[in-house]
Amino acid sequence: MATQKFPIHFFEIPVTDFERAKAFYEAVTADRLETMTMGAHQFGFFPRAESVGGAIVHGEGYTPSQTGTLVYLNGSQDFDGMLKRVAAGGGTVVMPRTSIGEHGFIARFVDTEGNAVAIHSM
Q: Please, what's the b/e burial string for 58-89 (b: 16 or more CB within 10 A of its CB; e: otherwise)?
């Protein structure tokens, strides 16, 4: 059996206020989210190259949560800047930049919608 390059293909972050969440994540990542409506759902897609894709999603069946799967955003280029923009954008940092030894650094925050999300960087 072949090993997949990226075991995770796509992630979705549930949001209750799409425009607020879009503004928050665009500020935190310093990137534009491409929007699309599919049926009754609104999507804001994070930019991606050769890695895992993801989106914020608003619609029936999508409920923000601080429990369950934890998504780690890639902070390799601007970890500290991203963390500063979390608080400036209305989120709450719940774990500051923390060393995980040879595996780099992580931090956790709660976004404007009430989701627990994290940042990782080598």
A: beeebebeeeeeebebbbeebbeebbebbeeb
Q: Are 105 and 113 in contact (CB under 8 A)?
A: no
pLDDT confidence of residue 48: 78
Asked if residue 91 lies in contact with residue 109, where contact means CB atoms within 8 angstroms, the answer is: yes
Residue 1 has pLDDT above 70, yes or no: no
The CATH number of the domain holding residue 113 is 3.10.180.10
Q: Considering its fold, how many domains does the chain have in total?
A: 1
Kindly state whether residue 5 falls inside one of the protein's structural domains: no
pTM of the predicted protein model: 0.88
SS3 20: helix
In what order do the strands lie in the sheet containing 10-14? Answer: 10-14, 53-58, 41-45, 34-38
Is residue 1 situated within a structural domain? Answer: no
The contacts of residue 80 (CB under 8 Å, 6+ apart) are: 97
